[in-house]
Amino acid sequence: MTTVAIIVAAGRGSRAGGGVPKQWRALGGSVVLAHSLAAFRASPDIDRIVVVVHPDDMPRAAVLAAEGITFTAGGATRDASVRNALETLADSGATRVLIHDGARPLVSPALIARMILALDEVVAAAPALPVTDALWRGEDGHVIGTVARDGLYRAQTPQAFDFAAILAAHRAHPGGAADDVEVARAAGLDVTIIDGDEDNIKLTYPSDFVRAERILRERRMDIRAGNGFDVHAFGPGDHVWLCGVKVPHGRGLVGHSDADVGMHALTDAIYGALAEGDIGRHFPPSDPQWKGAASHIFLTHAVRLMRERGFALSNCDVTLVCEHPKIGPHAITMQQELAKIMEVDVTRISVKATTSERLGFTGREEGIAALATALLVTA
Ligand code: MG
């Protein structure tokens, strides 16, 4: 079984604005056509891709060249373009073909897989969505009637066919068909409706590009969680540093840096979300330059790394475990201090505390433990 894809991108559509045919306009850091190509290339069941472009666009097409992709010149009409592409594949051994409109860049590999699967059962299938909005007939900006929507569908692509059947249908068709379903039906083929995809929009107007950019951003949304845990022992001193706040206490915390256990846990949570190890990896304790260092240096580094990787902090939550000092009176100041260091809104930062009911090393007041969770999202 050899399955080929034909992407039709020979139109000169200019209603979308931008001065160039819409399939060559920029979208999501690439050109419109590149997105469809990527979806078909990501589909393991597609063996070969033929892209139909306008002869004038051949130089533009060169940048999309890749293994398994051939470019062919379009004809005067859409159905002539498709027929040209089918003819170039006539002796290629293709048994199935998906024909896709290059102005639908958001086609998903899942929809492509659905269409190929349909061809296991039928000779022709097309994706569509039922019309759910009321339909009106209008004239001069006024409603002059309603149209029953029962049985109406919004047609999409890729439309999927048995190769020999659709080639024969195109050869027999006089021309002027709106799409390949029309050509198939004219040849007597039964076309099965497959569930389309609401995001598989056709770019026609400038507002469609805005919507497509939004959908692409959502698809790229990446969410990372990280956790951190740290412990420092009490030693001599008259204060401790906790989450960037100097808290008077009968003892100090022992550590290579300022021993800010809360900030260390939070820093490790961010490194963890980025799969970037922990503080010790970036600031080795063996390096004397970090002796007595203020811990905001570590946190600032983790936050900078986070931003460089394209993430923003959605929220973080730090829990300090100790009997003393009492954290409650300082918690808001700690949140404000962390917000300042991380340059994020204070409402995204939580600092809270618990005792361990006098159990264990924190209960015996031998030291303080801290846990932190950080959630990072695509910026
Ligand atoms: Mg530490």
Q: Gap between N and C termini, in Å?
A: 43 Å
Structural class: alpha/beta
Number of strand segments? 19
Q: What percentage of the residues does DSSP assign to strands (E)? A: 25-35%
Q: List low-pLDDT spans.
A: none
The CATH superfamily label of the largest domain reads Spore Coat Polysaccharide Biosynthesis Protein SpsA, Chain A
CATH topology of the largest domain: Spore Coat Polysaccharide Biosynthesis Protein SpsA, Chain A
User: Number of DSSP helices?
Assistant: 12
Topology:
Layout: E1 3-9, E2 26-27, E3 30-31, H1 32-41, E4 48-53, H2 58-61, E5 69-73, H3 78-88, E6 96-101, H4 109-118, E7 124-130, E8 135-139, E9 142-147, E10 153-155, E11 159-162, H5 163-172, H6 180-186, E12 192-195, H7 206-219, E13 223-235, E14 239-242, E15 245-248, E16 252-253, H8 261-273, H9 279-282, H10 296-308, E17 311-321, H11 331-342, E18 349-354, H12 360-363, E19 367-378
Parallel strand pairs: 1-4, 1-6, 4-5, 7-12, 17-18
Antiparallel strand pairs: 2-3, 6-11, 7-10, 7-11, 8-9, 13-16, 13-19, 14-15, 17-19
Helix pairs in contact: 3-5, 5-6, 8-10
The structure holds magnesium ion.
The site of magnesium ion has 5 residues, from strand 13 and helix 8.
In short:
The protein has 379 residues and is α/β, with parallel strands linked by helices. The chain contains twelve helices and 19 strands. The strands form five sheets. Strands 1, 4, 5, 6, 7, 10, 11 and 12 form an eight-stranded mixed beta sheet that branches. Strands 16-13-19-17-18 form a five-stranded mixed beta sheet. Strands 2-3 form a two-stranded antiparallel sheet.
